[in-house]
Amino acid sequence: MSLDRAVLAFAGVMVLVSVLLTAFVHPYFVWFTVFIGVNMLQSAFTGFCPAAMIFKKLGFRPGCAF
Q1: Domain named Inner membrane protein YgaP-like transmembrane: which ranges (predicted)?
Q2: What band does 60 get if pLDDT is binned at 50, 70 and 90?
Q3: 50 φ, ψ to 5°?
């Protein structure tokens, strides 16, 4: 799995988890979803992604985006 796909899969899982937490635990978990979206947006413009840095250190092969 490439670094790009790992980051996208991780972001998708985090969004789904945050939506489930919002629905079943407390409505304020919606801010977790907002945080994930803002992080994805800033990553698209700046190229800086903390998750990509972590996955790169874990040995995922580089992709096109990161």
Answers
A1: 2-56
A2: very high
A3: -60, -40
Compute the distance between CA of residue 3 and CA of residue 38 in angstroms, rounded to an integer. 20
Convert 6-33 to b/e letters by CB count within 10 Å (16 or more is b). Answer: bbeebbeebeeebeebbeeeeeebeebb
Whole-prediction pTM: 0.86
Q: What residue segments make up the domains of the chain, in order of their start?
A: 3-57
DSSP assignment of 2-62, as one string? BHHHHHHHHHHHHHHHHHHHHHHT-GGGHHHHHHHHHHHHHHHHH---HHHHHHHHTTPBP
What backbone phi and psi angles, to 5 degrees, belong to 18? -65, -35
